[in-house]
Target: 4-hydroxy-tetrahydrodipicolinate reductase
Amino acid sequence: MIKVIVSGFNGSMGQKAVAMVNENADFQLVGVFNPIIDSLNPADYDLDQDVKVFNDFSQINIAADIWIDFSIPTAVFENTKFAISKNIRPVIGTSGLSEVQTSELKSLADSEKLGGIIASNFGISAVLMMKFAQTAAKYFDQAEIVETHHEDKLDAPSGTALNTARLIHEAQQKDELENPNESDPLGTRGGDYHGIKIHAIRLPGFIADEEVIFGSDDESLTIKQSTTDRASFMKGVELAVKEVMKRNELVIGLEKII
Ligand SMILES: NC(=O)C1=CN([C@@H]2O[C@H](COP(=O)(O)OP(=O)(O)OC[C@H]3O[C@@H](n4cnc5c(N)ncnc54)[C@H](OP(=O)(O)O)[C@@H]3O)[C@@H](O)[C@H]2O)C=CC1
Ligand SMILES: O=C(O)C1=N[C@H](C(=O)O)C[C@H](O)C1
Model:
């Protein structure tokens, strides 16, 4: 039985993770973490009576194999460091980690030979979109990314958009050219990652969509994925939990294991 702690358990994704763990015969939910909550009715959150509710790292003294984290960008680094320090394998979905923080976490886990994963997106459509974009990037001069999320999202650009831009840049091995004569007093051309423009839209009515648009002389290519239910992310989380139990290093990106 794989023993799991879910961090951020009362959030939109945390509740999906709790349900996924409860429904999987190979997993056991042993604890949940949120530093803000100190008293709750377990039934409101789909928690069995024997699941421990933690609101401080110092209380976490139980044996656990996996730390699933869907919390907030400002907390994920410390949460992941804590899990690694307790030899609990991190499965991290929370966005907002910088490249420096990600490498520090990788070094910490790898030096302990501890399996784990940090994935900007656990959805199969998004992972395939990133893979296809990386392939297309070799054949096109310019790319722009449009990501659309629900209005409660705390960070922009999304972790997925940033990761897509990073993969495109890696494939192209150069900064994309910008028009030096362009004028943009309202900042409508979007954010910039090595010349790849990223446009972030926040609107009710959406969960998470991303579109990568490539252009070259006389042709263009659009790759688009849409998320219609957060349950779709759980296929990737379930797969990742099983996989990191067999690994002894921290994997960056679900694309490395599917
Ligand atoms: N990798 C992937 O596939 C996906 C990643 N995400 C990412 O997951 C994260 C969570 O998203 P979502 O569920 O929509 O957000 P929510 O705001 O719904 O949930 C975040 C939860 O984290 C809790 N929280 C606050 N501080 C801490 C802390 N220090 N430690 C643990 N939990 C804490 C919040 O509690 P309270 O409400 O009490 O403040 C809240 O319940 C985001 O970064 C999002 O980008 C989302 C979807 C897919
Ligand atoms: O906040 C979200 O909802 C999502 N966050 C992740 C990200 O920042 O890319 C993954 C997905 O886009 C949903």
In short: The mean pLDDT is 96. The pocket of NDP (ligand 1) is lined by residues 7-8, 10-14, 33-37, 70-73, 75, 79, 93-96, 119-123, 233 (CB under 6 Å). The domain at 2-118+231-256 is CATH 3.40.50.720 (Rossmann fold).
